[in-house]
Design a protein that fits this description.
Strand content: under 5%
Shape: elongated
Number of strands: 0
Distance between the termini: 32 Å
Structural class: mainly alpha
Largest sheet: none
Radius of gyration: 20 Å
Number of helices: 3
Order of helices and strands: HHH
């Protein structure tokens, strides 16, 4: 489960290494690589955040549900 948290590092690694995408070509719809590469990470980051959220939410719900009465008699 903790490995899913590492998915949140993908946008940081992908965007902090600027020399990797600091180029004009290739262009996409007239935008240089520098701009569309960064814009591409907006939906990628949202998707990864959603995946981690679902995993954490399901894990938290699983921990809350237990035997009736909290397991004490």
């Amino acid at each position: 489960m903790r490995a899913l948290w590492l998915l949140l590092l993908v946008p940081y690694v992908g965007l902090l290494w600027v020399p990797f995408y600091n180029h004009l070509d290739p262009r996409l719809f007239g935008f240089p690589l520098f701009y569309w590469y960064q814009l591409l990470f907006v939906p990628i980051t949202a998707g990864l955040t959603y995946i981690v959220y679902l995993a954490v939410k399901d894990d938290a719900l699983g921990r809350e549900s237990g035997p009736p009465g909290g397991g004490r008699h």
